[in-house]
Design goal:
about 325 residues; mainly alpha
Length: about 325
């Protein structure tokens, strides 16, 4: 067998994968470090410690890749972005729910990174990331089930036989009787609701402790948008007597001391909101009822503008670390 050459330069996609993971994992380490200090439940603490060990191993590996590439190491987030003396902002229960949703984000991100990698060491690395995160996800779901806090998507009846669509009314949704939601549409709504409710809790909690008026106002705006979107998705399921995700807003403590820097809190919300555009898009892609497709389109437009407002705020305060850029050929030619 021919020896694989690992000295091939990383592509822009591979650099993007490593840079994005570095930013997200350094942020996660800050959040997990504080949570481990404050958590009371031993089972949840063990889970958080397993999660932070994975994140730290990723950072070590990314550093190695970038150093070998003579690529500057991002600043990301450091111990300056977390106050270990601050009281807990969220309960142990919410931290478990939060870990569940963030692990779903991780699995999606690592699958995308693997699909855009070509160099052998990058493929091997992201295969391992997927394995680590799959194990973490399995442990999280098992613990949530044992504590009775896992929100399962709605059940539907088992059909007696296979069937085929025999008229175009299947696609309608504007006038007259609408067909029931199909399994893919229910799944899309359920998982988008799970992710949205976590954003609501984070926005309420962060608004409670942040000191900047502009950041506080941004969190308040996001809370209202996400609550409205959650209600719209819940009503679609409720109209068909289907169960939906529960709210976790009662899992915020009364602390007014921020455990995290405003840079971290704002970055976290902007990142989650930006990811929501993609998750709504995935829900839209499997939707076959026109009224539901329009609702997803409106949700994407609304949340996209909110994400843009957050990015502008990060830039205003000098908190947005610039992602890797292509060479400006026109500028180079002028020089």
């Amino acid at each position: 067998m021919d020896k694989v050459n690992h000295n091939v330069q990383l592509t822009s996609a591979e650099i993007a994968n490593l840079w994005t993971q570095y930013m997200n994992d350094t942020m996660s380490i800050c959040i997990l470090t504080h949570s481990i200090e404050k958590v009371q439940d031993k089972d949840i603490k063990d889970l958080l410690e397993f999660s932070i060990s994975i994140a730290k191993s990723h950072i070590k590996k990314i550093n190695k890749f970038l150093i070998e590439e003579n690529y500057p190491i991002p600043k990301g987030f450091t111990k300056e972005d977390v106050d270990l003396n601050a009281p807990p902002l969220f309960t142990d229960t919410f931290m478990l729910v939060y870990m569940h949703v963030m692990t779903l984000h991780g699995l999606t991100g690592y699958a995308g990174a693997l699909g855009t990698s070509a160099r052998a060491d990058q493929i091997s690395y992201f295969i391992q990331c997927n394995k680590d995160t799959t194990e973490l996800y399995e442990r999280i779901v098992k613990l949530m089930l044992s504590k009775g806090i896992y929100s399962k998507p709605a059940h539907i009846s088992t059909p007696n036989q296979i069937d085929f669509v025999n008229n175009q009314r299947y696609l309608t949704g504007w006038f007259g009787k609408k067909r029931p939601l199909n399994a893919m549409e229910i799944s899309g709504l359920s998982y988008n609701m799970q992710k949205t409710v976590v954003k609501i809790v984070l926005e309420i909690g962060f608004e409670q402790v942040c000191t900047s008026k502009e950041v506080k106002k941004y969190m308040n705006k996001g809370k209202k948008i996400c609550k409205s979107q959650f209600t719209k998705m819940r009503s679609l399921l409720s109209k068909e007597d289907l169960s939906s995700s529960q709210s976790w807003v009662s899992e915020i403590t009364d602390s007014t001391v921020s455990p995290f820097s405003e840079k971290l809190m704002l970055f976290h919300i902007v990142t989650l909101v930006s990811a929501a555009v993609g998750f709504y898009g995935a829900g839209l892609a499997v939707t076959q009822r026109r009224d539901l497709a329009l609702k997803y389109t409106n949700l994407i437009a609304e949340i996209g503008l909110y994400a843009e407002d957050g990015a502008e705020l990060l830039i205003k305060y000098g908190w947005m670390e610039q992602p890797p850029l292509a060479d400006d050929r026109e500028n180079l030619a002028n020089k």
